Description:
Blueprint: E1 23-27, E2 34-36, H1 49-60, H2 69-76, E3 86-89, E4 94-97, H3 109-125, H4 145-155, H5 157-167, H6 173-191, E5 197-199, H7 200-213, H8 215-234, H9 238-252, H10 254-267, H11 272-278, H12 285-296, E6 306-311, E7 315-320, H13 327-330, H14 351-358, E8 365-369, H15 375-381, H16 383-386, E9 392-396, H17 397-407, H18 412-415, H19 422-426, H20 431-446
Helix pairs in contact: 1-5, 1-10, 2-6, 4-6, 4-9, 5-6, 6-10, 7-8, 7-10, 7-11, 7-12, 8-9, 12-20, 17-20
Amino acid sequence: MLPRWSLPLLLVVLTGCGSTTRAVRLDTGHGAPTVFTPRSGAAPVEMDADDFEEAVEALALAVRPSMRPQEAARHLFEVEPRSGSYLFDPRTRRVTPLGPSEHLEGGPPSADVELTRAYLRWCERTARSGDCLHLLVEGPSVTGDGRYALSMALAQGVVLDEMMDAFKDMADPQAMMTAVLWTWTTYMILLAVPEPFSKGVAAVMTASLIAYVGVDTFWTLIAGFKRLVEAADRATTFDELRAAGEHYGKVMGRNAARAFAMLATAAIGNTAAGLGSKVPMLPGAAQAAVQAEAQMGIRLAAVADVGTVAVSAETVTIALAPGAVTMAARGTGDGASAKARPSGYRTWSSFSGFKKARGPAGKNKEWHHIVEQTPGNVKRFGPPALHNTENIIPLDKSLHTDVSAFYSSIRRTITGSSTLTVRQWLSTQSYEAQRDFGLLAMENVAKGFW
């Protein structure tokens, strides 16, 4: 006999995580795709509550939350409205649609009514009035996607409380928090289909999320959400829905939840390019930049160049511009940039040779190495990789001084260490990771973020 549970248009098939070695295929549209194996041992970027709250507060100031957050989230991710109930047989994977007036046997409407009443009582108990998550805007009861959104809210109670603290000075903090929740939930629904495919804002969000949490955790989040969907569809009581949410909260963990919520906030009302430009400025971006290379073989600063992302049981396929691919993915390993060299590109065997050939940097400017010319870097990458027209640029003297001081400082929120300087921490990274960080450092120091 078929299990009796509803799925709103999307057929959810669980994919086990197991111990399969994951791979990333990088497709630039030029030549055969590059197959990249992520480095093992990746963990979600650490982010403390203060940094998280400051970030989502700043991001929210640029957002005007919609009164129909579910509809806005569907529009953002280009997801069609979905409705209808289905019977699903896990053995045959066949789906049988029910007619407009049919209901699932064993799941009478009264169960939805009671669940809706329990949801409204929960809103009151948590000092939120009425339909606090806007689950009833498109229907009279909590069904379908509304169950998933409520489960996600119950999964991340602490993180949602942190967001409410961040939004407390807004005109309607509840509307903002609800917008984030629906953005977060709709994105996960998009990933929950078999062989998920994302484009536009969703593709940039996928690449950014992997940079923050790592490939293995990303797969775990998808598999865990599919289990949450199954449990939420089977639930007949609020307590069962709460149990499903809390279980997923444990699967996700605090750091991944904060990164996810922060990226969802940044995505609201944005374009792919707009979201891509914000990511390198977010808390934890320095560690995410390193992880983007180690996990996907791409530069974090280039996530806006990601066009599509397709996920299968063992592979993430990323279509992106050629310049976004790092040396690690291409296997060059010689310290040279993976992208094509511009005309006029030259290298020198020493900094003094560079200065002799190029002369002064300019009025009130000094020459600056994006990837520093430390003894360790010279030994690892070779002088030509450091003393060249791409790596040495003119920089305002004051900014050069500030950047140098920043590299000599200890920044635990960036490096995760309370003893290493930024320079010492960075020295263990690859050439491309150091270059990405160097570009990010100049921008963030100039803006006063670091």
